[in-house]
Amino acid sequence: MSIMLRDVLGTLDCSALAEGMADRRLIHRPGGCGIPPEALFSLEELEQLLLREGADSKDLRVTVNGRMANLEMLGVLKDGRLRPLVLRQLTRQGVSLIVNNLHRYLPKLWDLAGDAERLLRDRVVIGAIASFSKLPALPPHYDPEDLLIVQVEGSKTWRFFGEPADCGMANHEMVKPPADVSATVVMRPGDVLFVPSGLHHQCEAEGVSLHVGLLIKHATLLDLLRDLCREHPSLNRPIRPLLGREKVAERLAALKAELISHLDEADAASWLAEWNAPRARVTGLGLGGAPDPAPAEGIAALTVTMVPPGRPGRRWKVGGVEFKPGAGALAVVSALEAGPRTVRDLLDAAGREAGPDEARAGLDQLIGKGLVQIAPP
Ligand SMILES: [Fe+2]
Known about the structure:
The chain is an alpha+beta fold and 377 residues long.
């Protein structure tokens, strides 16, 4: 089942959201979610993801009373593998789990992230925080992204401090956390909350609690500068102090002049369109219907080098995930070994080996695991 942003936001439409973004103010819609919140993501799915399917450990954080714990020291990770029993024990002791990039693991959330990018014309990633006690998952902080939060299970009190700082960077040292509580919101299952970036907050769960967050990452000037430096290697000429003050001054002046000229020439609007919503470009194909993460003309490629198991159904650990690929997934991997190809071509080749339905299911499975990426044609 695909989930669309409108399903999630219910009564909170894009124009109300845009107003909240423009005014940088909180929006709380009690019971506003347009679908049963557990259809979005549930504790059972989290358990399944962590304990059976295996998420990339880089996307998992365990926090103890607001502090990030070292997964290896806690024994949650051993030799790069998650240890479910240790994790279960820790949740009983009241730790919190933060899962980033959730859209990489669940096709329905991948669809949701893509749909959100198309509607919001921005980059969107999805994460979740599960708490198992009243201890906070994180210390008071602000996020550089605008947040759309849906409370799925349990209740959670959000305390906000001061006014939002207009800063699209995480942990900017010049942005100090204000002391005064400027707002308090109690989130219950089905509630939707918009939190503008830069607004300091801290959450306290009643007990077991799960919320899902769509993080809307806006481009900043730093992103443009990074891309310019990538595009023009000469902007990255080194500055060598040992050559003397004069040479350093010359080099700095030349770099500055060059940067200004590149900035002048840059078509910032096109850059922004390109930078934003990498998944949203797929809609330009006009295929109609539900957004398809693998349209026929998209270019499919393996994201990591892999040596698949010899036969289907065998447990396979690759690219930080562990799962049992079916015949379709194996056929897709072998069809991609020689290099990227269009989805249509890939499904033809893999379909001849494993059958068309198996090949399609295998491709979806590999996309869901982040092992195959589809680039726009
Ligand atoms: Fe946050």
